[in-house]
Specification:
Order of helices and strands: HHHHHH
Number of helices: 6
Number of strands: 0
Helix content: 40-55%
Shape: elongated
Strand content: under 5%
Protein name: Mos1 transposase HTH domain-containing protein
InterPro entries: Transposase-MT_Hybrid
Largest sheet: none
Distance between the termini: 54 Å
Radius of gyration: 22 Å
Organism: Scleropages formosus (Asian bonytongue)
Length: 129
Amino acid sequence: MLQQAHGDQALSRSVVFAWHRRFREGRESLGDDDRSGRPVSSRTEENIRAVQRIVRENQAHTIDSIAKRLNISHGSCHAILTQDLRTPQRLVHRMLAEERLACGDTITAADDGDDGLLQRVIVGDETCL
């Protein structure tokens, strides 16, 4: 009946039986169960506030220095800056440029401005990873 009513969007027979069993055993919610261990993302409210505080204290920090200080990944720190805090791209661009210089890369005129640097992977030696 579910297949007829919902077509390809219907749950499979085994999934329906699994959920039926869970509710028969006393489950009252469709939400995920709490899990122990590391959180799925470092983009928590606490980390967002911490990144914001660090950048307000000193805008000369690099993304890697902030990430190391908070024990989060470079990608999470970058996402917090660009998506959660909506840091101006010129500031994030400068932070990335400083990291490239620290790795011994040269910055060319093509790197100056909004040329997609944030979308490219920046590679350096192992000390810069």
